[in-house]
Amino acid sequence: MEEIKVTNIVKFHILFLLYQRPVHGYELMTEIEKLVGSKPSASQIYPFLSVLKKNNLIAIKEEAERDKKVYELTEKGRRFVEKKLEMFGGIISATIEKDLTTCAHCGCKVYSGGYEETIDGEKITFCCTHCAGTYKRG
Ligand SMILES: [Zn+2]
Question: pTM of the entire structure?
Answer without folding.
Answer: 0.66
